[in-house]
């Protein structure tokens, strides 16, 4: 009798552990424009980024950190200010655009320059859409600086982090600036990955601009927001990025 009880329990435990090991990394969200540091890594604009190239949406750590990687054990490269992070050239009012691959219920979205919180948006536990945009005033700041964005999940102790390097006004920008985000950001001009102007088959790792058309599963789609395609972001599953035509 004892063996008949123990063996099934061990079998169940083995199945659960195997499932945990085999499970793919969760997908969540990040700022796509102006390009965040992880977006620039995923697009190949910045090299030597490590695993963040494949998981720009996965910068998850406990709430309250002021580090670009959230202070976790992963993606520490995002905190390395010695890397040549491109600074997007913007005006004093910027729209930050998020792409969400898992739409967690949200408490707040926070934006910081240094230790100063410059904007907060309260969702009061609502579930966001597949894309989220926030108009933020930079408070008259000029020059080059970094904005830390924090997406605080409503019903867990976790948050998602994105750092965006900006240049307001001329001089000393460093890197290669990108146009102001008055519309979804085009691909950065410095050594971008291959782009698809239209007519080809969707492929992970390809940068698509707004209006690009692809085929997938025998159907045609038009790109709604500039991005670099990742596995799991196929057109049928990401209506915020692709429209069937």
Q: How far apart, in Å, are the first and last alpha carbons?
A: 62 Å
Low-confidence stretches: 5-27, 172-194
The helicity comes to 10-25%
For the largest beta-sheet, the strand count, sense and barrel status come to: 6 strands, mixed
The geometry reads as globular
**For the CA atoms, what is the radius of gyration?**
20 Å
Q: How many E-type strands? A: 15
H/E element string?
HEHEEEEEEEEEEEEEE
The oligomerization state is single chain
Estimate the mean pLDDT confidence: 80
Strand content: 25-35%
Which structural class best describes the helix and strand composition?
mainly beta
Number of helical regions: 2
What does this structure look like?
Residues 171-202 are annotated as: Disordered. Residues 1-27 form the signal peptide. By secondary structure, the chain is mainly β. The protein has two helices and 15 strands. The protein has helices at residues 2-22, 37-42, and strands spanning 29-33, 60-62, 88-90, 93-100, 106-113, 116-122, 131-137, 143-153, 158-168, 200-201, 207-208, 213-216, 219-223, 227-228, 242-244. The strands form four sheets. Strands 2, 3, 5, 6, 8 and 9 form a six-stranded mixed beta sheet that branches. A four-stranded mixed beta sheet has the order 10-12-13-15, with no helix packed on it. Residues 5-27 and 172-194 have low confidence and may be disordered.
């Amino acid at each position: 009798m004892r063996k008949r009880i123990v063996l099934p329990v061990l079998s169940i435990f083995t199945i659960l552990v195997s499932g945990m090991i085999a499970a793919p990394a969760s997908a969540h969200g990040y700022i796509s424009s102006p390009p965040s540091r992880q977006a620039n890594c995923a697009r190949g604009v910045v090299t030597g980024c490590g695993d963040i190239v494949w998981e720009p949406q996965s910068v998850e750590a406990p709430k309250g950190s002021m580090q670009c990687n959230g202070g976790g054990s992963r993606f520490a490269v995002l905190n390395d200010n010695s890397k040549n992070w491109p600074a997007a050239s913007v005006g004093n009012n910027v729209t930050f655009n998020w792409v969400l691959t898992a739409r967690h219920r949200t408490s707040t979205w926070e934006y910081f320059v240094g230790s100063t919180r410059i904007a907060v948006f309260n969702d009061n536990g609502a579930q966001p859409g597949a894309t989220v945009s926030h108009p933020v005033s930079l408070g008259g700041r000029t020059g080059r600086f970094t904005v830390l964005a924090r997406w605080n999940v409503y019903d867990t102790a976790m948050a998602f982090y994105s750092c965006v390097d900006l240049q307001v006004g001329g001089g000393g920008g460093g890197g290669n600036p990108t146009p102001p985000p008055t519309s979804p950001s085009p691909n950065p001009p410095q050594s971008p990955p291959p782009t698809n102007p239209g007519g080809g088959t969707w492929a992970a790792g390809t940068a698509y601009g707004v209006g690009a058309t692809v085929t997938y599963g025998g159907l045609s789609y038009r790109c709604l927001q500039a991005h670099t395609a990742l596995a799991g972001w196929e057109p049928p599953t990401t209506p915020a990025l692709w429209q069937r035509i």
